[in-house]
Amino acid sequence: MKIDQDHQRFRQIVKGRIRDDLRKFLSKGELIGKEGKHLISIPVRSIELPNFRYGDNSGGVGSGEGEDGQPVPGQKGKGKGQGGDQQGQHLMEVDLSLDELAEMLGEELKLPRIEPKGAHRITTIREKYSSLRSVGPQSLRHFKRSFTEALKRQIASGTYDPDNPIIIPEKKDIRYRSWKEVKSPQSNALIIFMMDVSGSMGEEQKELVRLESFWIDTWLRKNYEGIDTRYIVHDVNAKEVDKQTFYHLREDGGTKISSAYKLARSIIDLHYSPAEWNIYAFHFSDGDNSSEADNRECVRIIREQLLPISNLFGYCQVASAYGSGNFINTLHESLRNQPKLLTSRVNSKDDIYDSIKTFFAKGH
Length: 364
Hints:
The protein is of the alpha/beta class. The protein folds into 3 domains: about 1-50 and about 90-110, no CATH class; about 120-180, no CATH class; about 185-360, 3-Layer(aba) Sandwich (Rossmann fold), CATH 3.40.50.410. Helix content is about 35%, strand content about 25%. It is built from 10 helices and 9 strands. The protein has helices at about 1-20, 20-30, 100-110, 145-155, 205-225, 245-250, 260-270, 290-305, 325-335, 350-360, and strands at about 40-45, 90-95, 120-135, 175-195, 225-235, 240, 280-285, 310-320, 340-345. α1 (about 1-20) crosses α3 and α7 (about 260-270) runs parallel beside α8.
């Protein structure tokens, strides 16, 4: 239908407008995080399709008798002041699925699709309704097949009247959907987000982490059927928390990064076999750590325990006026030849675009 074609065309225009502004959404934080039912509402500039407008062109807005500032009849006002002469920018919110948003992200950043590594797939059991039977609950009644069976019976018995086509199913005509369990291979991924919540990590740094981790999560969900996400916060000690706590908790103690890495490895050992899961670990910090000794311990854990079992270990250093910013240099010096270790610096929201591309440009 013509209206369906117009609607599809409009959707393409909307997607094109969002794609054009995607970098702005990443860098300026203009994404409205309404994640209900896997939908995201995005503000876009008003879009109007070309169309003809009929009517009397002798007048228009503001024409006719009257002085500047005079109120419109029927409305209150003192008649003072002058109206603006610039057109306002109209925005509308467009609902997109996370899948559509991730597709745009991949196209804009030219990200390759991720290939799940080796045999790291698990098998899930699901029910498939693929047959019929003559007994079952009313909730599984198959009306079309029941009607067909009744019609066949009446035709065979000679009781069907084409001039008065009334079909009355009997109990023996009723059919019910039947299912069987089928095994379905499914690529799964674990994301472990780790963040320093010591005193040097303020609200500005947490906002950078929130935006960056949102886009990381969005892209990985585009590439895997199943995602588990775990959240770890640390100062001198590490603990696992829920998502809400992860983005809002702040401590005033020191920093010991190795505590987070040890907890991440413990979670993997207890719940996620590397033979069945694609593992992604991301650490966010301002680069401040307690000592050179702990820096060396972090390097050891990454090299010996986390990199061998991970698809990717990403370290994102956010700028802070109170952090030393030295930890990223430690990683560069000690682990420079590790292709699965990727690092980025995010000094402001403008750097998020390049940071996401750094982590996923190689398709890990």
